[in-house]
Structure prediction request, 202 residues.
Amino acid sequence: MKTFKFTNQLLGLLFIASLFVACSKDDGEDGAIGPQGPQGEQGIQGEAGADGEDGAQGEQGETGAANVIYSEWLDSPLAENIALESTNADIAAPSLSQEIVDQGVVLLYGRIETNGNVYSLPYIGNQGVSYYYYHNLEVINIRLTTIDGSDIGSPLFSSYRYILIPGGVQASNGIGGITGKSSTDYSKMSYEEITALFNIPE
Prediction:
């Protein structure tokens, strides 16, 4: 009877041990990581969005980069025949403010009636007549004088036009054609260059 009981106990222990060994075999170490699979195909690119509508056009800016002021061609205030060696006459310039007198640039041009050529003042004609000008508040004074002291005769220019450039430039002493402290000396530019620069119509 004792032998049978011992045998049963031994068989039970062996059964438990076999279960333990079986469970231990299931908990083995992880294997090496396999190679990475191929990359999937790239998706279809989305379509570009529609262009937005153009915005409303802005208002047209004022004429010229420096908001210049210009006159029409004005008839010469001088006599047609001058029996003097020097003379002068005024043309009205209502927009010639004290600020422009003090800090701006005043340009004056003469036009020959017969061929339409335009010259900037100061100018010395072939007849030996010097054309120049002074400016002050609301007025430009045109002056003519002969180099040799003879009579002026018929002036070269039949009409005049002024261009006023406000601000940023130190006027010298009111003598036309001489500009002061400026990176651009407008007096050395031709009439065509000035009108193109500031978009001034004929």
User: Anything to note?
Assistant: Helices lie at 2-26, 98-103, 191-197. Residues 34 and 94 are 94 Å apart (CA to CA).
